Amino acid sequence: MDREEAVCPVCGQPVATVVRRHKTLGAWVPVWSPGPCRSPDCASNAAPAPQAGPTARQHPGEPAGK
After folding, report:
1. What would the pLDDT profile of 21-55 be if each residue is shown by its tens digit?
2. C-alpha span between 46 and 41 (Å, rounded)
3. CA–CA separation, 66 vs 58, rounded Å?
4. Residue 54: predicted pLDDT
5. CA angle in degrees (0–180, nearest 5) for 64-65-66
6. Looking at residue 57, what is its pLDDT?
7. C-alpha dihedral over 30, 31, 32, 37, to 10 degrees?
8. What pLDDT, on the 0 to 100 scale, is given for residue 21?
9. Distance between the two ends of the chain, CA-based, in angstroms?
10. Residues in contact with 14: Cβ distance below 8 Å, sequence separation at least 6, in sequence order
């Protein structure tokens, strides 16, 4: 098993290791992979900003923009 620290392929900064699972021959086996880069200066950290939801709920039959 590989004990090296995971690094971002773009900026080279250390990243967390994420464990996912994969089903092989009917058994779930762990798969370790590098997690997302959290560096604000990294180009791979282009996560979309959370979109704001509607502030007011429109009721059926009510005109829009009221």
Report:
1. 999 999 999 998 888 888 888 877 655 545 555 55
2. 10
3. 8
4. 54
5. 95
6. 56
7. -120
8. 93
9. 62
10. 5, 6, 7, 8
- 48 forms beta bridges with none
Q: What is the mean pLDDT of residues 57-61?
A: 59
Asked if 35 contacts 15 with a C-beta cutoff of 8 angstroms, the reply is yes
Residue at token pair 């604000």? 40
Q: How far is CA 59 from the centre of its chain?
A: 34
CA distance 42 to 39: 5
> Is residue 11 a contact partner of residue 44, using CB atoms and an 8 Å limit?
yes
Confidence of residue 1 (pLDDT cuts 50, 70, 90): very low
